[in-house]
Amino acid sequence: MNLTSKLDKNAREEGTVLAPRFDANGLVTAVVADAGDGTLLMVAHMNEEALRLTLETGIAHYWSRSRRTLWKKGETSGNFQHVVEMHVDCDQDALWLKVEVAGDGVTCHTGRRSCFYRAVETNGTEPVLRFTE
To answer: Residues 6 or more apart from 28 whose CB is under 8 A from it?
Structure first.
C-alpha cells in the first residue's frame, strides 16, 4: 500500500487517491469521534506506518509524539478503537475517524471517555476551565 503518492492540487482535492500530506515530522492529524453519537474523543497523530496498519487491520494505530513510538490504541487497556469510517479533509492533511470503542469505552489516559472533558469559559477577566464530564 503506497500512501506517499505525489499528486497535483486538483488530483489531491478532487480525486479518488488517498495521498496524505504528512507534515515535516512525517505526521498527519487524526480527529477521532464516537461513531454512535459523534462525541469528539481525541486528537492524535499518525505516521505512514500507523495509517497503513489502521487501514489494514481496522483498529486505530497512532504515533506517540511524546514516546516517539507507534501505538495500537487499546493494546494495554482493552479499549480498542474499531474504525467504522475514515474521512480525509480537502487537502489530505487531516483525518477524521469514526470509531467504536471496545471495553469500557475509555479513550483518554485520564480515565475519561473523551479527552475533551473541560469547557473554556470566561469569567470577565480570565478564562477558566469547567469540567463537563
So the answer is: 20, 21, 22, 45, 46, 47, 51, 92, 93, 94, 95
Strand pairing class (127-131; 61-64): unpaired
pLDDT by residue (tens digit) across 75-98? 999 999 999 999 999 999 999 999
1 domain residue, yes or no = no
Domain that holds residue 114: 9-131
Q: How many CB atoms lie within 10 A of CB 56?
A: 10
pTM for the model stands at: 0.91
